[in-house]
Amino acid sequence: MSAQNPQPIGTSTAATDISTQQATYLPPSDLSAKYHKGIQRPIVVQPHASASKAGSTKIKTIENFYVRPRWLFVRVETEGGVVGWGEGTLEGHTEAVQGSLRDISRRLVGWDAMNIEEIYTYLYRHRFYRGGEVLMSAMSGVDIALWDIKGKVLGVPVWELLGGKIRERCDVYGWVGGDRPSDVLAQAKVRKEQGFTRVKMNATESIGWLDSPHALDETVERLAQVKSIGIDAGLDFHGRVHKGMAKQLAAALEPHRPLFIEEPLLPGHVNELKDLYNKTTIPIALGERLFTRLDCRPYFEAGCIDIIQPDIAHAGGISETKKIAIMAEAYDIGVAPHCPLGPLAFAASLHVGFSTPNFVVCEMSWKMHYNTGGFDLFTYMTNPEVFQVEGGSVGLLTTPGLGIELDEELIRKEAAEAEKLEPWINPLFRGDDGMIREW
């Protein structure tokens, strides 16, 4: 047989006979067998008593509470007595968000809390001046609380309202190293013992616009140390590293294969980020300082990121974060919510994760370096067990609304104390010459 004399169609060769004999079909995996009929609902729907009373879902009050370590909680109550909680934390700008919330509260009393999309549209579109971190964070706090209310009124978890669950667990990562990264190996070992399989750390501390290349050596060494114990690590450049240094650092990190590099350049540098993207195989993540789909759009269209990181407490709450995630999927971009914040933002992020195909991992602030003074992720919760980390992930939240229970008495008491204190502000970094540097 030759190319000039091909074998007739329908006949076989010795090679094809052997291939057919050796072909085998593996049995379904355990997970495939478990989910052969899809993911089943683990809950029974039990609507709140007020669900059957006309007018009971009107907004009665909107309050906000600044609590340590640096969080801003929002409480919305309906005429029917259903309370929803949200989070509008904007680190370092607490009082600005509180001012916006006072304005929002005036406007929304009497509106139907169940009409989340209408309220979101009104708050965003009917203000003429739109977007920005302050307004969007205030909207986030209210929006998350409204989803909490709707879930509680209807007797279902928020993920049920977002189209149902697509997974039963959400991967999470914890922090190591702090603002000025150090002791990362010891901290990574602790995180591994706590059940994490992934961590994140700042890539550098204060760094000059064009610094010595040796200033990057410790970053590479820290990554190598953490990976040596069998744990993956993302590196947050935090916008501290300018273009000339960022491409050097990405190249030096490449052999060590970080999980991702985050904010390798400051927001707004779309073309520059595209250039960096084309120079590295490391996944690039960004998004905590983008607040709407319109902010994300240039990065999606430029094809310069692999992971979008909306912060649900800054980006308009569950409503806008879910829309950003859907938009990202069209560009084959994963979603990894930014969330170095409190339990309400974390729970809301998980609900998006449970219902979103392109969700990849969520930040978790448990025992994070910002949580000082005895205040941590579980401080204001009465059911912290729902956030237990196992195998690098947190399980499905199954009770109505956000699925977390808060100690309202403690929140009110702490807010009264925190009012007497200066709100949290971020550290100030300066170089040896006195010049202010990126934090």
TrEMBL record:
It comes from Kwoniella shivajii. InterPro entries: DgoD-like, Enolase-like_C_sf, Enolase-like_N, Enolase_C-like, Galactonate_deHydtase, Mandel_Rmase/mucon_lact_enz_CS, Mandelate_racemase_C, Mandelate_racemase_N_dom. Residues 181-283 form the Mandelate racemase/muconate lactonizing enzyme C-terminal domain. Its cofactor is Mg(2+). The keyword Lyase applies. It comes from the Eukaryota. Keywords: Lyase, Magnesium, Metal-binding. This is Mandelate racemase/muconate lactonizing enzyme C-terminal domain-containing protein. Gene3D superfamilies: Enolase-like C-terminal domain, Enolase-like, N-terminal domain. Signal peptide: none annotated. PROSITE patterns: MR_MLE_1. The keyword Magnesium applies. SMART domains: MR_MLE.
